[in-house]
Amino acid sequence: xxxxxxxxxxxxxxxxxxxxxxxxxxxxxxxxxxxxxxxxxxxxxxxxxxxxxxxxxxxxxxxxxxxxxxxxxxxxxxxxxxxxxxxxxxxxxxxxxxxxxxxxxxxxxxxxxxxxxxxxxxxxxxxxxxxxxxxxxxxxxxxxxxxxxx
Amino acid sequence: xxxxxxxxxxxxxxxxxxxxxxxxxxxxxxxxxxxxxxxxxxxxxxxxxxxxxxxxxxxxxxxxxxxxxxxxxxxxxxxxxxxxxxxxxxxxxxxxxxxxxxxxxxxxxxxxxxxxxxxxxxxxxxxxxxxxxxxxxxxxxxxxxxxxxxxxxxxxxxxxxxxxxxxxxxxxxxxxxxxxxxxxxxxxxxxxxxxxxxxxxxxxxxxxxxxxxxxxxxxxxxxxxxxxxxxxxxxxxxxxxxxxxxxxxxxxxxxxxxxxxxxxxxxxxxxxxxxxxxxxxxxxxxxxxxxxxxxxxxxxxxxxxxxxxxxxxxxxxxxxxxxxxxxxxxxxxxxxxxxxxxxxxxxxxxxxxxxxxxxxxxxxxxxxxxxxxxxxxxxxxxxxxxxxxxxxxxxxxxxxxxxxxxxxxxxxxxxxxxxxxxxxxxxxxxxxxxxxxxxxxxxxxxxxxxxxxxxxxxxxxxxxxxxxxxxxxxxxxxxxxxxxxxxxxxxxxxxxxxxxxxxxxxxxxxxxxxxxxxxxxxxxxxxxxxxxxxxxxxxxxxxxxxxxxxxxxxxxxxxxxxxxxxxxxxxxxxxxxxxxxxxxxxxxxxxxxxxxxxxxxxxxxxxxxxxxxxxxxxxxxxxxxxxxxxxxxxxxxxxxxxxxxxxxxxxxxxxxxxxxxxxxxxxxxxxxxxxxxxxxxxxxxxxxxxxxxxxxxxxxxxxxxxxxxxxxxxxxxxxxxxxxxxxxxxxxxxxxxxxxxxxxxxxxxxxxxxxxxxxxxxxxxxxx
Lengths: 150, 768
Ligand code: FES
Ligand code: FES
Known about the structure:
The structure holds two protein chains of two kinds.
Chain A: E1 2-6, E2 9-13, H1 21-28, E3 47-50, E4 53-56, E5 69-71, H2 83-90, H3 100-113, H4 119-126, H5 136-147
Parallel strand pairs in A: 1-5
Antiparallel strand pairs in A: 1-2, 3-4, 3-5
Helix pairs in contact in A: 2-5
Chain B: H1 2-16, H2 31-44, E1 49-52, E2 55-57, E3 63-67, H3 76-88, E4 95-99, H4 104-107, H5 120-147, E5 154-157, E6 160-163, E7 169-171, H6 176-180, H7 213-218, E8 233-238, E9 246-251, H8 253-257, E10 261-267, E11 283-288, H9 291-299, E12 302-306, H10 315-328, E13 331-336, H11 339-344, E14 348-356, E15 368-372, E16 378-382, H12 387-398, E17 405-409, H13 423-435, E18 439-442, H14 445-450, E19 458-466, E20 472-480, H15 497-500, E21 514-519, H16 536-553, H17 558-566, H18 596-610, E22 620-629, E23 632-642, E24 648-658, H19 665-684, E25 690-691, E26 694-695, E27 715-719, H20 739-751, H21 762-765
Parallel strand pairs in B: 3-4, 8-18, 16-17, 20-21, 24-27
Antiparallel strand pairs in B: 1-2, 2-3, 5-6, 6-7, 8-11, 9-12, 10-11, 13-21, 14-19, 15-16, 15-18, 19-20, 22-23, 23-24, 25-26
Bound molecules: FE2/S2 (inorganic) cluster (2 copies).
């Protein structure tokens, strides 16, 4: 039995302890904001926070979230107005949008740990998150904007 | 403004349902869908004003505008409605967008609903203006009628209709009841609602915030894999690693032991005499209650494959046959003068071979969609670029009529041409029928990379002659590639007019007196399909790079030389050079001519904006390229820095786009910025290879794509204003083709190394 909190709500899970967190969130809880892009920790589309740290949901077994706090894009801010979310809209970052939940969760974790990242630190932190639409330039700018607000 | 709209729709959503987190359609749907459905229901119940199939006005004044094209990041759910809203004088903050279901009669009469070919705006700009103007006209009539005044005395402005003399006014919402009883005047003599003068436009040509950004940034946006229906099952399919291979036998014992796996069934292999087209090719499907279970189940399958007819498809040798074929040449698809004779007597000739391997789309969202074959009509909910073709192929797979299949379109997590091909929905349909429940088929990234529709591999041989004065006197280009047409005709060995028209026969160096363009034969041994900007990629690469090589051989400056090749401004007439059935992206050459002046113009602007000609430090280089496709003219200048270890950094890119009349400059910028990144992947990242017919690459570790650390992060987009009086042209694709040659030319200028085969790797550039 795995016990965890997801976006502040206590949950219990009795199934396969190896099931990746991503599929638990999407298929069991219906929280579809976290996306599947590769299933192998290579693209970042599934990024969520586990005890505040950015983790790839597709390669994190649910058993490893036992006793922990999981935050998804749906729970990042009650009104959807986290500084990173606001910066994303101000820069009109998304194209197709599919990668953006992962990008936002990655950026939010970076800024909570390092509120004033250097350019290189931004690139290093965001490099695991692929955007096939090619919004990197706006992501970079939006992280900088958000950094002035956190 | 966009954010307000999303807030509004979100409130509606939250009020109307128990809240997020359910697993049933309706409870899980994003605001963009629930609201659209509410508008649809109200208009069906007669409680709304519905002047035409694109516009509904609700009694509260909300204007719901239909978007009948698929949104995959290009911003079409913003661009199309903003044209309608402008003409009807709607207030953008009170506009919502309804995603159209597949409906050819209503929305497909111009060019179907297939969203590809960068044609949504250019084909619908005028009709949508007319739809908006028609709605405004009826609202004005309704106001005049209610006030008992002449219609000439009233006018609509910003969501209200005003009476000039009395100062009376009414909100659009207050006019719904009366307007709903009016009909659009029809017949020859009927007055035509007048379109606004360009000077009065408030949204067209302006930045309007994109529609779905609130949902996207809060996890509320729905894609193909986010749709759930009551009782739905999830499936993944094991497909033969080799194109058109088949299942010999399989053992599902271990797979069935995985908790959550409910069934393992075979999707029969497509009959040998049926071409692949967009059909399901067959395989073993694992079906169950959640995605992880069926993925685990698939891993536990034991399958013996009959690898089929294409085991000889080995790129290590296949690519050589393409190169030989290009050298040999074949069908002459364009001829001007006598290139061979001009080469013979030339002061100088040059020859080079260019090569581009297979690529695969890898949209961030792999193909996914739901089909419910148990309902009447059969229902598709999917991330698809082509809702009507989806109906057609699903109907065929089920042996029913297309009319008995409905299709709703979700947001697409990228398309790039992959989601025009509904094979994944055929799989879902077949499985849904087999198990008697709705089925969502989920492609994994491995499936996407190993069982896709590949961007064609191509070899090109180019030869040219220059005279004593350094002028180009002959240009001979010969290409060989497996054709997309082989999806329908497997025996197809040469290209066809659509492929020829992707930057090959319309090669724009019009000042060259002798031109010969040929197409050599090639066997198709894998599914080849269109990919963002299609064959323009290789043609633009070869043309622009070879022109730079030639400039150097002639001792000329590349910019000046390229402008000379393009020649004086004119409209290219390819019929004079014997080009048959020039495709012109499906459009009339009179409406969208090939204007060499516009091509030269963007090239000059790119040179100027990038500071072309300035001295550069060691290891730096600036490269230029230009290309026309989808009727737009784009020039790219790339500034590159190459380290001794071959590492490449790109401090600046200037992309100049002339797309004629344009609608939303910010969405154009974002498309063209993204096109540079897409081009950067083409030039520097992944390539597909095959061994014994099977694709070797499987995920983003061995099929690499641009990431933040190697992408250009300073792409400056310049939208040309000189030709906005002309028709709109394509935007989604044209930014891609010139990026690669501009980068490769820049690398040459930085290092003296001429790259003729993609992708370029650091080891190709490292100092020995
Ligand atoms: S889906 Fe988890 S990193 Fe790609
Ligand atoms: S916005 Fe489409 S993948 Fe990033």
